[in-house]
UniProtKB/TrEMBL annotation:
Protein name: S1 RNA binding domain protein
UniProt cross-references to InterPro entries, sorted A to Z: NA-bd_OB-fold, Ribos_protein_bS1-like, S1_domain
Any one biological process term the GO annotation gives: translation
Protein origin, superkingdom: Bacteria
Domain S1 motif: 6-74
Gene3D superfamilies hit by this protein: Nucleic acid-binding proteins
SMART domains: S1 (SM00316)
PANTHER family per UniProt: 30S RIBOSOMAL PROTEIN S1
Organism annotation: Desulfofundulus thermosubterraneus DSM 16057
Gene Ontology cellular-component terms listed: cytoplasm
Length: 129
Protein backbone atom coordinates (compact mmCIF):
# COMPACT_ATOMS: atom_id res chain seq x y z
CA UNK A 1 0.00 0.00 0.00
CA UNK A 2 1.62 3.31 -1.03
CA UNK A 3 1.99 5.92 1.71
CA UNK A 4 0.25 9.22 0.97
CA UNK A 5 1.26 12.65 2.25
CA UNK A 6 -1.19 13.84 4.89
CA UNK A 7 -2.28 10.41 6.08
CA UNK A 8 -2.15 9.62 9.80
CA UNK A 9 -0.86 6.13 10.61
CA UNK A 10 0.21 4.08 13.59
CA UNK A 11 3.74 2.68 13.59
CA UNK A 12 6.41 1.15 15.77
CA UNK A 13 9.76 2.75 16.67
CA UNK A 14 12.47 0.46 15.23
CA UNK A 15 15.52 2.62 15.80
CA UNK A 16 16.69 5.84 17.40
CA UNK A 17 19.47 8.17 16.26
CA UNK A 18 20.61 11.61 17.46
CA UNK A 19 18.67 13.25 14.63
CA UNK A 20 15.40 11.32 14.91
CA UNK A 21 13.59 8.00 15.10
CA UNK A 22 12.88 5.34 12.48
CA UNK A 23 9.26 4.17 12.41
CA UNK A 24 7.98 1.00 10.75
CA UNK A 25 4.62 1.69 9.14
CA UNK A 26 1.75 -0.80 8.63
CA UNK A 27 2.77 -1.60 5.02
CA UNK A 28 6.26 -2.64 6.14
CA UNK A 29 7.83 0.61 4.95
CA UNK A 30 10.08 2.64 7.24
CA UNK A 31 9.96 6.40 7.69
CA UNK A 32 11.91 8.94 9.72
CA UNK A 33 10.58 11.31 12.38
CA UNK A 34 13.12 14.12 12.56
CA UNK A 35 13.92 15.26 16.11
CA UNK A 36 12.19 18.60 15.42
CA UNK A 37 8.93 16.73 14.69
CA UNK A 38 8.82 14.68 17.90
CA UNK A 39 7.22 17.23 20.26
CA UNK A 40 5.99 20.82 20.42
CA UNK A 41 8.75 21.65 22.87
CA UNK A 42 12.51 21.67 22.24
CA UNK A 43 13.87 18.11 22.19
CA UNK A 44 17.50 17.90 23.27
CA UNK A 45 17.59 14.13 23.81
CA UNK A 46 15.14 12.06 21.77
CA UNK A 47 15.56 9.16 24.21
CA UNK A 48 13.54 11.14 26.77
CA UNK A 49 10.53 10.96 24.43
CA UNK A 50 10.80 7.67 22.52
CA UNK A 51 12.05 4.14 23.07
CA UNK A 52 12.48 1.24 20.62
CA UNK A 53 9.21 -0.75 20.21
CA UNK A 54 7.01 2.22 21.25
CA UNK A 55 3.76 2.45 19.28
CA UNK A 56 3.28 5.97 17.93
CA UNK A 57 0.78 7.82 15.80
CA UNK A 58 2.48 9.70 12.95
CA UNK A 59 1.49 11.94 10.08
CA UNK A 60 3.17 11.53 6.70
CA UNK A 61 4.60 14.96 5.83
CA UNK A 62 6.73 14.06 2.81
CA UNK A 63 7.65 11.32 0.38
CA UNK A 64 10.60 12.15 -1.87
CA UNK A 65 11.46 10.79 -5.33
CA UNK A 66 13.72 8.11 -3.80
CA UNK A 67 10.90 6.86 -1.59
CA UNK A 68 12.14 8.33 1.68
CA UNK A 69 9.21 8.98 4.00
CA UNK A 70 9.18 11.99 6.35
CA UNK A 71 6.96 11.63 9.39
CA UNK A 72 5.77 13.84 12.25
CA UNK A 73 4.47 12.87 15.68
CA UNK A 74 3.89 16.52 16.56
CA UNK A 75 1.65 17.21 13.55
CA UNK A 76 -0.30 13.99 14.11
CA UNK A 77 -1.20 15.28 17.59
CA UNK A 78 -2.08 18.75 16.24
CA UNK A 79 -4.93 17.30 14.21
CA UNK A 80 -6.73 16.24 17.41
CA UNK A 81 -8.71 18.04 20.10
CA UNK A 82 -5.68 18.18 22.39
CA UNK A 83 -4.05 20.93 20.32
CA UNK A 84 -7.16 23.11 20.20
CA UNK A 85 -7.41 22.88 23.99
CA UNK A 86 -3.71 23.78 24.31
CA UNK A 87 -4.05 26.76 21.98
CA UNK A 88 -6.85 28.27 24.07
CA UNK A 89 -4.68 28.48 27.17
CA UNK A 90 -1.21 29.04 25.70
CA UNK A 91 -0.52 32.53 24.32
CA UNK A 92 0.56 32.76 20.69
CA UNK A 93 4.06 33.77 19.66
CA UNK A 94 2.85 37.28 18.82
CA UNK A 95 1.26 37.65 22.27
CA UNK A 96 4.44 36.44 23.97
CA UNK A 97 6.55 38.83 21.88
CA UNK A 98 4.24 41.75 22.64
CA UNK A 99 4.38 41.01 26.38
CA UNK A 100 8.18 40.71 26.23
CA UNK A 101 8.54 44.06 24.42
CA UNK A 102 6.22 45.79 26.91
CA UNK A 103 8.07 44.36 29.93
CA UNK A 104 11.41 45.23 28.36
CA UNK A 105 10.37 48.84 27.73
CA UNK A 106 9.08 49.16 31.31
CA UNK A 107 12.37 47.79 32.65
CA UNK A 108 14.36 50.23 30.47
CA UNK A 109 12.31 53.17 31.78
CA UNK A 110 12.82 52.03 35.37
CA UNK A 111 16.58 51.77 34.84
CA UNK A 112 16.69 55.23 33.21
CA UNK A 113 14.78 56.77 36.16
CA UNK A 114 17.12 55.08 38.61
CA UNK A 115 20.24 56.35 36.83
CA UNK A 116 18.79 59.86 36.50
CA UNK A 117 18.08 59.96 40.25
CA UNK A 118 21.66 58.97 41.01
CA UNK A 119 22.96 61.68 38.70
CA UNK A 120 20.78 64.36 40.23
CA UNK A 121 17.82 64.21 37.88
CA UNK A 122 17.31 65.44 34.38
CA UNK A 123 18.69 68.83 33.40
CA UNK A 124 20.48 69.45 36.66
CA UNK A 125 23.82 68.15 35.46
CA UNK A 126 27.02 69.71 36.72
CA UNK A 127 27.85 73.01 35.16
CA UNK A 128 31.33 74.32 35.00
CA UNK A 129 32.03 78.01 34.79
Amino acid sequence: MPVEVGSVLEGVVTGIANFGAFIQLPGGETGLVHISEVADEYVKDINQFLKVNDRVTVKVISVDSRGKIGLSIRQARDSGERSSRRRRFEPSFEEKLSRFLKESEELQQSLRRSLDAKRGGRGSGRRFL
